[in-house]
Amino acid sequence: MAGGDTPAAPAPEHSAFVRLWLGFATARVGVAFVLLLLLFGLRLMGSPAVSGWLLGMCGTYFVAALAVRVLMRPADPGAAFDPQWVSSIGVDLVVFACLQFLQAGGIYFAPLFAVPVLMASVLGTTLLALGTAAAVALLLLAEAWVMALQVPAEVAQRFLQAGLTGTGFFALAFLAHQLALRLAREEEAARRGRKAAYMQAQVNQLVIETLGDGILVVDPQGEVQAANPAARELLCQDPARGGALLQLAEDSAWEPLAEMARLTFQTGQPHLADVSLRQGEAPVRRVFARTRLAAAGEQDGDALCVLFLQDLREMEARLRTEKLAAMGRMSTAVAHEIRNPLAAISQANELLEEELSEPSQRQLAALVRQNANRLAQIVEEILDVARVQHQALDPAAAAIELDAAVGAHCRDWAEQNHAAARLQVAMGAPAVRVAFEPDHLRRILVNLLDNALRYASTAPDAIRVATSGGDGAMLTVWSDGPALEPAVERHLFEPFFSSESRSSGLGLYICRELCERHGARIGYRRGPAPSGDRRDGNVFFVAFRTASPLAPSGTFARMAA
User: Fold this and answer.
1) d(Cα 123, Cα 310) in Å, to the nearest integer?
2) Bigger pLDDT: 456 or 14?
3) Which range has the worst mean pLDDT, 88-92, 325-329, 350-354, 519-523?
């Protein structure tokens, strides 16, 4: 993972048995060359035991050994007796047997049989190893018998020498074969271990590369040996650098991280801290950093420090979302439990109010009715959240004419709230159909108008509603109320947030949920009225998905910008 590169696969290398085969093949070439030089030197010195055909046999053996070394490839360890072993072990036995029987130059050639015996024991099967040792023992006994016929006085000595030599070759074959079997087992275990380690390294890198948290691996000199994409983004690294290694000391903004790494190397203990990172004109990033010492070896320079980086904004947002989800579940459960007792209270108050005649008592009953209605509205808003989140959307009925629906809803709202003089409506999207259910659009528009009425002035046209077509269908609700505080604006569409103590804080949240369900977008800005009035006011807008005028209901054309 160093520098963001993919880890290289294990380098192909010759196994121990391949190297042993190459060693035996090279040794055979060397033995053949030495024999050829030795016999040729004896021939030059006039030795009558070295004939021309004997030199020819050694020369042929040298060429054959060289051809096997250059042209042939090693067989699998433990292979059965096949032509490759015939061309090597068989040729060795024949050549060395001829030299031993002829006693060329009076030299004892029996030790040369160790080459084919070892080759068969290390590279072949158990049967091949013991068979080669047996063949060598039989050849030595046959040579001793032939020599005993020529010199009867040395029969016991020659047979004893041949027997001891054959027994030694059997022992050599057995021990070498056992060592070869153990080497094969260890090599197979090492091969499986390397494969498992390589696969684990790939899995680890894949996990680290896709991890949302940043990870830096730093050496004692402050050089970053590895960094995943999340860490590079948190460090505001220039993308043009690609996978180049970083130096924490090269940027003063990274000094807190470098200091944490130095403390970790010095103390050997993990550290954690909140760090602010800035590079150039990029905004400040608040990061929660923690360190761990890893890969510690016998020397201090072998250690590495791993830094884990988490964006505090994401952590806070995730925590806030979890809290809101828990609060929503609890509020829904509480609302279900409150609704039945609240209905009983309202009904009992209505019955009691019919029996009251004194104005003070009727005033108290009216106060109970008013607050019970308020509680009922809050309960319904809380339950609306659950309904919106679980209600199935019917795409076949989700296309309406924007101007007609908005005009009708505005007239109904103005009549109910006696606010016709304060409301101005401007329709600018004729024949435009939007992908929205009528009841959901009514709830959104009524909620935005209620908010506008609560904060707008009493002047004529203090509230203005406008629609527009153009590149995308848009609904705008403007009011001349005071500007929102920045703290209020940041949390405007969050559930259970309100600047008033008498509000549940769910209205705008439900509007946002309904818009998201229909692929629309709701937002807020401070700006002038849509009719051209230069006065600044609070503007809530909804950008819709449009439906083609010629298409059936529910066929969506595009998303408003």
Assistant:
1) 57
2) 456
3) 325-329
pLDDT tens figures, 347-365: 888 888 888 888 888 888 8
Which of 107, 102, 108 is closest to 53 using CA atoms?
102
CA distance 503 to 496: 9
- Nearest residue to 231 (alpha-carbon basis) of 253, 214, 219: 214
Measured between alpha carbons, how far is 538 from 489 in angstroms, rounded to an integer? 11
Q: Which residues contact 490 (CB under 8 A, 6 or more apart)?
A: none
For 21, the enclosing helix (H) or strand (E) is: helix 16-44
CB 372 within 8 A of CB 528: no
Q: Rg (Cα) of the chain, in Å, rounded?
A: 47
Q: Which segments within 304-446 are labelled E, that is strand?
A: 304-311, 400-401, 423-426, 433-434
Residue 302, both tokens: 């072998």
| Cα 52 to Cα 35: distance, rounded to the nearest angstrom | 14
User: Phi/psi at 348 (nearest 5 deg)?
Assistant: -65, -35
Longest Cα–Cα distance of the chain, Å, equals 154
Query: What pLDDT is attached to residue 553?
Result: 34
CB atoms within 10 A of CB 113: 26
Q: What's the Cα-to-Cα distance from 413 to each of 76, 84, 279, 388, 541, rounded to whole Å?
A: 90, 99, 52, 22, 18
3 state DSSP class of 418: coil
Question: What is the reported pLDDT for 220?
Answer: 85
Asked if residue 101 lies in contact with residue 93, where contact means CB atoms within 8 angstroms, the answer is: no
Crossing angle (nearest 10°) for helices 91-102 and 114-123: 160
Amino acid letter, 412: D
- 140 exposure class (CB count in 10 Å sphere: 0-12, 13-18, 19+): buried
Instruction: Work out the angle at residue 159's Cα, subtended by the Cα atoms of residues 157 and 165, and round it to the nearest 5 degrees.
Output: 100
- Kind and range of the H or E run holding 488: helix 486-490
Separation of alpha carbons 549 and 198, rounded Å: 60
Residues in the chain: 561
Task: Please give the Cα distance from 99 to 112 (Å, whole number).
Answer: 10
d(CA 462, CA 455): 10
Q: Report the alpha-carbon distance of residue 146 to residue 138 in Å, rounded.
A: 12
**Three-state secondary-structure class, residue 495:** coil
Identify whether the C-beta of residue 261 lies closer than 8 Å to the C-beta of residue 291.
yes
Number of H helices, E strands in the chain: 15, 15
Closest CA to 91 of 172, 35, 10, 149: 35
